Amino acid sequence: MASGEGSSAAMRAFGADFAEADCLMLAEVATVLKQQADAHEEALRAGTTSEGLKDTFLKTLEYAQRFNHITEMQSIMDTRTMLEQAGLEPVQLAAMANLMPRSVAEARSLIPSLTERACSDDVLEGLINRLQELQRM
């Protein structure tokens, strides 16, 4: 790892290439990739394409499905809405949904930008509890 690389991520400084990029939860990535894979499979059946999916695409889909904690579409939408309404920044939102911390201390440790100033302990604990409920749906 290059010098300062870890601190750049912790400070949410990802460079110009990502200045306009949206942060997605793994649940959203898995949904989009699955839709693309299904559309590709349909195109194969219809004969409009003969190419297989790229290995990188398939590995990314597998990763997103494996580490995705929220599978129901309504739960995915509820998760994003809840975290946005709590005032989390996009990177914090994605990190909370992807990492699914079990405690306030774990959340603050895994997401350094999630300071008490950014989100109180009570609010953060409520978010964690609701995330766990949505995960079980």
From TrEMBL:
<dbReference type="GO" id="GO:0030880">
    <property type="term" value="C:RNA polymerase complex"/>
</dbReference>
<dbReference type="InterPro" id="IPR038324">
    <property type="entry name" value="Rpb4/RPC9_sf"/>
</dbReference>
<feature type="domain" description="RNA polymerase Rpb4/RPC9 core">
    <location>
        <begin position="16"/>
        <end position="137"/>
    </location>
</feature>
<dbReference type="GO" id="GO:0000166">
    <property type="term" value="F:nucleotide binding"/>
</dbReference>
<dbReference type="InterPro" id="IPR005574">
    <property type="entry name" value="Rpb4/RPC9"/>
</dbReference>
<dbReference type="GO" id="GO:0006352">
    <property type="term" value="P:DNA-templated transcription initiation"/>
</dbReference>
<dbReference type="InterPro" id="IPR006590">
    <property type="entry name" value="RNA_pol_Rpb4/RPC9_core"/>
</dbReference>
<dbReference type="InterPro" id="IPR045222">
    <property type="entry name" value="Rpb4-like"/>
</dbReference>
<dbReference type="InterPro" id="IPR010997">
    <property type="entry name" value="HRDC-like_sf"/>
</dbReference>
<dbReference type="GO" id="GO:0005634">
    <property type="term" value="C:nucleus"/>
</dbReference>
<keyword id="KW-0539">Nucleus</keyword>
<dbReference type="Pfam" id="PF03874">
    <property type="entry name" value="RNA_pol_Rpb4"/>
</dbReference>
<comment type="similarity">
    <text>Belongs to the eukaryotic RPB4 RNA polymerase subunit family.</text>
</comment>
<protein>
    <recommendedName>
        <fullName>RNA polymerase Rpb4/RPC9 core domain-containing protein</fullName>
    </recommendedName>
</protein>
